[in-house]
Design brief:
heterodimer; A: alpha+beta; Ubiquitin-like (UB roll); B: alpha+beta; Aldehyde Oxidoreductase, domain 3; five-stranded antiparallel β-sheet; four-stranded mixed β-sheet; 3 helices
Chain lengths: ~80, ~150
């Protein structure tokens, strides 16, 4: 059975996806695999090396395991200030 | 110490009230404003977007680092989200310390690290009708990575 995760997108990724948050059923084992799956599906222009991932509101390395029920956020290059 | 994301207009007067420690001989503040040009293009307005729970967490880490590195007494940073117009305050930082050197250095550290690390994004609306998410270009001069800190 596929895992179910809640994915949030910000800034340019949110616009390219056309929404901010969605529930995604996935077989991806890691955050890197999940981003690649979604990048291909939705045509995201940013490669993973320019994006950071947060799981349950904390930065994580791309190789972090994806678990059922995780809240996963994909973060484009930041530009505060 | 406090790092806060807000959708409301920033009111420095109200925030300064929390920084009344009489051990402090210095209070340095920084105000970041929306300017009308960026890299030669005319800017009409900006949108700021934040991942607030993580932005506030990462922001507090930065202020804590500043406290340890420079020995300051206190620091507050507030960053706006939403639609901002020219001249609006986008970010406000205040640092108190016994002496001015630490306060200046810590304030500089806080704004530089905030720009580099805190999950906040800026979309600029230009006079020619185009828009751009800053640092997110995948073609042109900004494509190889984040723009250098300024």
């Amino acid at each position: 059975m596929k895992k179910s995760v809640c994915v949030s997108y910000y800034a340019v990724l949110r616009e390219q996806r056309g929404l901010g948050t969605e529930v995604v059923p996935t077989d991806s084992a890691t955050a890197a695999e999940l981003y690649e799956e979604l990048r291909v599906r939705h045509g995201f222009t940013l490669p993973a090396l320019r994006v950071r991932v947060a799981v349950n509101d904390d930065f994580q390395p791309w190789e972090v395991a994806v678990r059922d029920g995780d809240r996963i956020a994909f973060l484009p290059p930041v530009a505060g200030g | 110490m406090e790092f806060r994301i807000t959708g409301e207009k920033i009111d420095p007067g109200a925030l300064l009230g929390a920084l009344g420690d009489t051990r402090a001989g210095a209070c340095v503040t920084f105000e970041g404003r929306v300017r009308r040009q960026n890299e030669g293009r005319g800017v009409l307005s900006l949108d700021y977007e934040a991942f607030a729970p993580l932005a506030e967490k990462e922001g507090m880490r930065i202020l804590e680092e500043a406290r340890l590195k420079f020995g300051i007494l206190d620091a507050v940073c507030v960053h706006r989200t939403g639609s901002l117009q020219l001249g609006d305050m986008a970010v406000w930082i205040a640092v108190t310390a016994e002496h001015r050197g630490a306060a200046f250095e810590a304030c500089r550290y806080a704004i530089d690290e905030t720009k580099a690390r805190v999950p906040i994004w800026k979309k600029e609306y230009y006079a020619d009708g185009s828009t751009e998410w800053i640092n997110c270009a995948t073609r042109g001069p900004g494509a190889s990575g984040p723009a250098p800190a300024v």
